[in-house]
Protein backbone atom coordinates (compact mmCIF):
# COMPACT_ATOMS: atom_id res chain seq x y z
CA UNK A 1 0.00 0.00 0.00
CA UNK A 2 3.01 2.30 0.34
CA UNK A 3 3.55 2.18 -3.42
CA UNK A 4 2.16 5.51 -4.58
CA UNK A 5 2.38 4.35 -8.22
CA UNK A 6 -0.51 1.96 -7.58
CA UNK A 7 -3.88 3.08 -8.93
CA UNK A 8 -6.12 2.99 -5.87
CA UNK A 9 -9.83 2.52 -5.90
CA UNK A 10 -10.52 5.29 -3.40
CA UNK A 11 -8.63 7.99 -1.54
CA UNK A 12 -10.44 9.24 1.56
CA UNK A 13 -9.43 12.64 2.90
CA UNK A 14 -10.25 12.78 6.60
CA UNK A 15 -10.04 10.07 9.25
CA UNK A 16 -13.05 10.85 11.41
CA UNK A 17 -16.12 8.60 11.83
CA UNK A 18 -17.35 9.33 8.30
CA UNK A 19 -14.03 8.67 6.56
CA UNK A 20 -13.10 5.59 8.60
CA UNK A 21 -16.57 4.10 8.25
CA UNK A 22 -16.29 4.43 4.46
CA UNK A 23 -12.80 2.92 4.59
CA UNK A 24 -14.03 -0.05 6.61
CA UNK A 25 -16.86 -0.84 4.20
CA UNK A 26 -14.63 -0.42 1.16
CA UNK A 27 -11.83 -2.43 2.75
CA UNK A 28 -14.20 -5.29 3.43
CA UNK A 29 -15.22 -5.02 -0.23
CA UNK A 30 -11.62 -5.84 -1.27
CA UNK A 31 -10.96 -2.30 -2.49
CA UNK A 32 -7.56 -0.61 -2.36
CA UNK A 33 -8.01 2.40 -0.11
CA UNK A 34 -5.87 5.12 1.46
CA UNK A 35 -7.18 7.32 4.26
CA UNK A 36 -5.22 10.58 4.69
CA UNK A 37 -5.80 12.15 8.08
CA UNK A 38 -4.29 15.43 9.32
CA UNK A 39 -5.38 14.74 12.92
CA UNK A 40 -7.21 18.05 13.39
CA UNK A 41 -10.68 16.77 14.21
CA UNK A 42 -13.37 19.25 15.16
CA UNK A 43 -14.29 17.13 18.19
CA UNK A 44 -10.79 17.07 19.68
CA UNK A 45 -12.14 19.27 22.51
CA UNK A 46 -14.99 16.86 23.24
CA UNK A 47 -14.72 14.94 26.50
CA UNK A 48 -17.28 12.28 25.56
CA UNK A 49 -19.47 11.40 22.59
CA UNK A 50 -23.13 10.67 23.18
CA UNK A 51 -26.01 9.16 21.24
CA UNK A 52 -23.84 6.54 19.51
CA UNK A 53 -25.24 3.13 20.41
CA UNK A 54 -22.64 0.95 22.24
CA UNK A 55 -20.27 3.96 22.44
CA UNK A 56 -22.32 6.37 24.56
CA UNK A 57 -20.04 8.37 26.84
CA UNK A 58 -16.82 7.29 25.13
CA UNK A 59 -14.28 9.96 24.23
CA UNK A 60 -13.98 10.54 20.45
CA UNK A 61 -10.24 9.80 20.51
CA UNK A 62 -10.99 6.38 22.06
CA UNK A 63 -13.55 5.62 19.36
CA UNK A 64 -10.98 6.56 16.73
CA UNK A 65 -8.29 4.42 18.37
CA UNK A 66 -10.63 1.41 18.32
CA UNK A 67 -11.44 2.07 14.65
CA UNK A 68 -7.78 2.32 13.67
CA UNK A 69 -6.97 -0.90 15.51
CA UNK A 70 -9.79 -2.74 13.76
CA UNK A 71 -8.66 -1.36 10.39
CA UNK A 72 -5.41 -3.31 10.75
CA UNK A 73 -7.31 -6.46 9.80
CA UNK A 74 -7.50 -5.12 6.22
CA UNK A 75 -4.07 -4.86 4.53
CA UNK A 76 -5.75 -3.24 1.54
CA UNK A 77 -6.57 -0.18 3.69
CA UNK A 78 -3.73 2.17 4.61
CA UNK A 79 -4.12 5.12 6.99
CA UNK A 80 -1.57 7.90 6.45
CA UNK A 81 -1.00 10.67 8.99
CA UNK A 82 -0.55 13.54 6.56
CA UNK A 83 -2.15 16.67 5.14
CA UNK A 84 -3.59 16.94 1.63
CA UNK A 85 -2.34 20.09 -0.09
CA UNK A 86 -3.66 19.57 -3.60
CA UNK A 87 -5.84 17.29 -5.74
CA UNK A 88 -5.51 17.19 -9.52
CA UNK A 89 -8.15 15.66 -11.77
CA UNK A 90 -6.81 14.28 -15.05
CA UNK A 91 -8.77 12.06 -17.47
CA UNK A 92 -10.94 10.53 -14.77
CA UNK A 93 -8.08 9.91 -12.31
CA UNK A 94 -7.52 11.89 -9.11
CA UNK A 95 -3.96 12.65 -8.05
CA UNK A 96 -3.83 13.56 -4.36
CA UNK A 97 -0.65 15.37 -3.30
CA UNK A 98 0.26 15.52 0.38
CA UNK A 99 2.44 17.82 2.41
CA UNK A 100 5.03 15.07 2.86
CA UNK A 101 5.37 14.80 -0.92
CA UNK A 102 3.40 11.60 -1.45
CA UNK A 103 1.13 11.31 -4.49
CA UNK A 104 -1.81 8.93 -4.43
CA UNK A 105 -3.73 8.22 -7.66
CA UNK A 106 -7.28 6.93 -7.41
CA UNK A 107 -10.47 6.29 -9.33
CA UNK A 108 -12.60 7.98 -6.66
CA UNK A 109 -12.05 10.46 -3.86
CA UNK A 110 -14.10 11.07 -0.72
CA UNK A 111 -13.81 14.27 1.28
CA UNK A 112 -14.69 13.65 4.92
CA UNK A 113 -12.72 16.67 6.09
CA UNK A 114 -15.37 18.17 8.35
CA UNK A 115 -15.50 21.73 9.59
CA UNK A 116 -13.30 23.82 11.86
CA UNK A 117 -14.92 25.99 14.54
CA UNK A 118 -13.98 29.63 15.13
CA UNK A 119 -15.43 30.62 18.48
CA UNK A 120 -16.64 34.15 19.26
CA UNK A 121 -13.89 36.29 20.82
CA UNK A 122 -15.23 36.09 24.37
CA UNK A 123 -12.43 35.97 26.96
CA UNK A 124 -12.62 32.70 28.86
CA UNK A 125 -14.79 30.88 26.33
CA UNK A 126 -12.03 28.63 25.02
CA UNK A 127 -11.35 27.38 28.56
CA UNK A 128 -14.91 26.11 29.05
CA UNK A 129 -15.79 25.04 25.52
CA UNK A 130 -16.33 21.29 25.36
CA UNK A 131 -16.32 21.00 29.15
CA UNK A 132 -19.27 23.09 30.38
CA UNK A 133 -20.36 25.04 27.27
CA UNK A 134 -21.40 23.11 24.19
CA UNK A 135 -23.02 23.62 20.78
CA UNK A 136 -25.24 20.51 20.61
CA UNK A 137 -27.91 19.68 23.22
CA UNK A 138 -28.43 16.22 21.75
CA UNK A 139 -24.76 15.52 22.45
CA UNK A 140 -24.48 17.08 25.91
CA UNK A 141 -27.94 18.18 27.07
CA UNK A 142 -28.56 15.17 29.31
CA UNK A 143 -25.52 15.95 31.45
CA UNK A 144 -26.74 19.58 31.84
CA UNK A 145 -30.41 18.75 32.48
CA UNK A 146 -32.17 20.97 35.05
CA UNK A 147 -29.01 23.01 35.63
CA UNK A 148 -28.90 26.83 35.58
CA UNK A 149 -27.75 27.42 32.02
CA UNK A 150 -26.91 30.27 29.68
CA UNK A 151 -27.70 30.31 25.99
CA UNK A 152 -25.17 32.40 24.06
CA UNK A 153 -26.11 33.72 20.64
CA UNK A 154 -28.06 36.07 18.45
CA UNK A 155 -29.72 36.04 15.05
CA UNK A 156 -32.66 34.42 13.34
CA UNK A 157 -32.08 30.91 14.71
CA UNK A 158 -31.85 31.99 18.35
CA UNK A 159 -35.53 31.54 19.21
CA UNK A 160 -35.67 27.97 17.93
CA UNK A 161 -32.38 27.17 19.69
CA UNK A 162 -33.74 28.50 23.00
CA UNK A 163 -36.87 26.38 22.56
CA UNK A 164 -34.65 23.33 22.10
CA UNK A 165 -32.44 23.98 25.13
CA UNK A 166 -35.54 24.71 27.24
CA UNK A 167 -36.61 21.08 26.93
CA UNK A 168 -33.49 20.09 28.93
CA UNK A 169 -33.56 22.92 31.49
CA UNK A 170 -36.16 25.52 32.41
CA UNK A 171 -33.55 27.62 34.26
CA UNK A 172 -32.33 29.60 31.26
CA UNK A 173 -30.79 32.98 30.63
CA UNK A 174 -30.28 34.15 27.04
CA UNK A 175 -27.19 36.29 26.47
CA UNK A 176 -26.99 38.05 23.12
CA UNK A 177 -23.71 39.93 23.86
CA UNK A 178 -25.11 43.11 22.33
CA UNK A 179 -28.47 44.32 20.98
CA UNK A 180 -30.64 41.32 20.21
CA UNK A 181 -32.38 40.66 16.91
CA UNK A 182 -35.28 38.73 18.45
CA UNK A 183 -38.78 39.94 17.65
CA UNK A 184 -41.13 41.38 20.25
CA UNK A 185 -43.30 38.29 19.92
CA UNK A 186 -40.33 35.99 20.56
CA UNK A 187 -39.29 38.11 23.53
CA UNK A 188 -42.78 37.87 25.00
CA UNK A 189 -42.82 34.10 24.55
CA UNK A 190 -39.48 33.73 26.34
CA UNK A 191 -40.32 36.14 29.15
CA UNK A 192 -43.63 34.32 29.71
CA UNK A 193 -41.49 31.29 30.56
CA UNK A 194 -39.25 33.31 32.90
CA UNK A 195 -36.38 33.24 30.42
CA UNK A 196 -34.36 36.38 31.03
CA UNK A 197 -32.70 38.11 28.07
CA UNK A 198 -29.44 39.99 28.68
CA UNK A 199 -28.13 42.20 25.88
CA UNK A 200 -25.18 43.73 27.76
CA UNK A 201 -21.78 42.95 26.27
CA UNK A 202 -19.81 40.18 27.95
CA UNK A 203 -16.45 41.06 29.49
CA UNK A 204 -15.34 37.54 30.38
CA UNK A 205 -16.30 34.07 31.53
CA UNK A 206 -14.72 32.83 34.73
CA UNK A 207 -14.24 29.14 35.38
CA UNK A 208 -12.38 26.51 37.36
CA UNK A 209 -10.84 23.60 35.45
CA UNK A 210 -13.20 24.24 32.55
CA UNK A 211 -16.34 24.43 34.68
CA UNK A 212 -18.21 27.69 34.14
CA UNK A 213 -18.62 29.82 37.25
CA UNK A 214 -19.61 33.38 36.35
CA UNK A 215 -20.45 35.50 33.34
CA UNK A 216 -19.12 39.02 33.79
CA UNK A 217 -20.65 41.94 31.87
CA UNK A 218 -19.38 45.31 30.68
CA UNK A 219 -21.59 47.18 33.18
CA UNK A 220 -19.87 45.41 36.09
CA UNK A 221 -22.69 43.00 36.77
CA UNK A 222 -22.11 39.26 36.86
CA UNK A 223 -24.26 36.16 37.01
CA UNK A 224 -23.54 32.61 38.05
CA UNK A 225 -24.27 29.74 35.69
CA UNK A 226 -23.13 26.12 35.74
CA UNK A 227 -23.01 25.64 31.99
CA UNK A 228 -24.39 26.76 28.70
CA UNK A 229 -24.93 26.25 25.00
CA UNK A 230 -23.48 28.23 22.13
CA UNK A 231 -25.67 28.93 19.11
CA UNK A 232 -22.92 29.72 16.60
CA UNK A 233 -19.42 28.23 16.70
CA UNK A 234 -18.34 29.98 13.50
CA UNK A 235 -17.81 26.76 11.52
CA UNK A 236 -15.82 26.91 8.29
CA UNK A 237 -14.72 24.23 5.88
CA UNK A 238 -11.50 22.52 6.94
CA UNK A 239 -10.35 22.44 3.31
CA UNK A 240 -11.15 24.37 0.14
CA UNK A 241 -9.88 21.69 -2.22
CA UNK A 242 -13.38 20.54 -3.33
CA UNK A 243 -14.10 24.13 -4.39
CA UNK A 244 -10.96 24.07 -6.55
CA UNK A 245 -12.32 20.90 -8.17
CA UNK A 246 -15.50 22.79 -9.06
CA UNK A 247 -17.83 22.08 -6.14
CA UNK A 248 -19.37 25.29 -4.74
CA UNK A 249 -20.38 26.08 -1.19
CA UNK A 250 -24.05 26.54 -0.39
CA UNK A 251 -25.44 29.46 1.62
CA UNK A 252 -24.85 27.60 4.88
CA UNK A 253 -21.13 27.18 4.18
CA UNK A 254 -21.34 23.44 3.43
CA UNK A 255 -20.31 21.98 0.09
CA UNK A 256 -23.15 21.55 -2.36
CA UNK A 257 -23.89 17.94 -3.22
CA UNK A 258 -26.25 16.49 -5.78
CA UNK A 259 -27.75 13.85 -3.49
CA UNK A 260 -28.39 13.22 0.18
CA UNK A 261 -25.61 10.64 0.15
CA UNK A 262 -22.67 12.79 -0.90
CA UNK A 263 -22.51 12.63 -4.70
CA UNK A 264 -21.28 15.88 -6.23
CA UNK A 265 -21.47 17.44 -9.68
CA UNK A 266 -17.93 16.20 -10.34
CA UNK A 267 -17.99 12.52 -11.24
CA UNK A 268 -15.93 10.51 -8.79
CA UNK A 269 -15.90 13.15 -6.02
CA UNK A 270 -17.96 12.56 -2.88
CA UNK A 271 -18.43 14.69 0.23
CA UNK A 272 -19.77 13.29 3.50
CA UNK A 273 -20.09 14.18 7.19
CA UNK A 274 -19.85 17.71 8.52
CA UNK A 275 -18.28 18.99 5.29
CA UNK A 276 -21.64 18.24 3.66
CA UNK A 277 -24.01 18.97 6.53
CA UNK A 278 -22.17 21.50 8.74
CA UNK A 279 -22.99 19.24 11.70
CA UNK A 280 -23.72 15.52 11.57
CA UNK A 281 -22.83 13.93 14.91
CA UNK A 282 -20.68 10.85 15.31
CA UNK A 283 -23.34 8.26 14.55
CA UNK A 284 -24.72 10.28 11.62
CA UNK A 285 -21.24 10.67 10.13
CA UNK A 286 -20.52 6.95 10.51
CA UNK A 287 -23.80 6.12 8.77
CA UNK A 288 -22.94 8.39 5.83
CA UNK A 289 -19.52 6.79 5.51
CA UNK A 290 -20.99 3.30 5.43
CA UNK A 291 -23.61 4.25 2.87
CA UNK A 292 -21.29 6.09 0.47
CA UNK A 293 -18.84 3.19 0.70
CA UNK A 294 -21.57 0.83 -0.42
CA UNK A 295 -22.63 3.09 -3.30
CA UNK A 296 -19.04 3.55 -4.51
CA UNK A 297 -18.41 -0.19 -4.37
CA UNK A 298 -21.56 -0.85 -6.41
CA UNK A 299 -20.34 1.62 -9.03
CA UNK A 300 -16.90 -0.02 -9.15
CA UNK A 301 -18.47 -3.48 -9.41
CA UNK A 302 -20.52 -2.38 -12.40
CA UNK A 303 -17.49 -0.87 -14.16
CA UNK A 304 -15.37 -3.93 -13.46
CA UNK A 305 -18.12 -6.18 -14.77
CA UNK A 306 -18.58 -4.19 -17.98
CA UNK A 307 -14.84 -4.11 -18.75
CA UNK A 308 -14.41 -7.91 -18.37
What does this structure look like?
- The chain has 2 domains: 7-117 and 234-306, FAD/NAD(P)-binding domain (3-Layer(bba) Sandwich), CATH 3.50.50; 125-230, FAD/NAD(P)-binding domain (3-Layer(bba) Sandwich).
- It is 27% helix and 26% strand.
- The protein is built from 9 helices and 17 strands.
- The chain has helices spanning 17-28, 60-71, 125-128, 137-140, 158-166, 184-191, 241-244, 274-277, 282-306; strands at residues 7-13, 33-37, 77-81, 84-90, 93-98, 103-111, 115-116, 133-134, 149-152, 172-175, 196-198, 202-208, 211-217, 222-224, 227-230, 236-237, 269-271.
- A hairpin with a 2-residue loop joins strand 4 (84-90) and strand 5.
- Helix 1 runs parallel beside helix 2 (60-71) and helix 1 (17-28) packs parallel to helix 9 (282-306).
- The radius of gyration is 22 Å and the shape is elongated.
- The mean pLDDT is 94.
Task: Give the topology, please.
Blueprint (H helix, E strand, L loop, with lengths): L6 E7 L3 H12 L4 E5 L22 H12 L5 E5 L2 E7 L2 E6 L4 E9 L3 E2 L8 H4 L4 E2 L2 H4 L8 E4 L5 H9 L5 E4 L8 H8 L4 E3 L3 E7 L2 E7 L4 E3 L2 E4 L5 E2 L3 H4 L24 E3 L2 H4 L4 H25 L2
Parallel strand pairs: 1-2, 1-6, 2-3, 6-17, 8-15, 9-10, 9-15, 10-11
Antiparallel strand pairs: 4-5, 5-6, 7-16, 12-13, 13-14
Helix pairs in contact: 1-2, 1-9
Amino acid sequence: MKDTNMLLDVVIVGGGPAGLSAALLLGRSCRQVVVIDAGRARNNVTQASHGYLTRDGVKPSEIKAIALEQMKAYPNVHVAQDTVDQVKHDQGIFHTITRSGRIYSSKKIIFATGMQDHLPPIPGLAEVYGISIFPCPYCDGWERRNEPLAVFGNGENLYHYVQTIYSWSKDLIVITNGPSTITSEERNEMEARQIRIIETEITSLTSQEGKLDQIVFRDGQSIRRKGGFLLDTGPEQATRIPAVLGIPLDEGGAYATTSDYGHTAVDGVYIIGDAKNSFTGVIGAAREGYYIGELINKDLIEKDWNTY
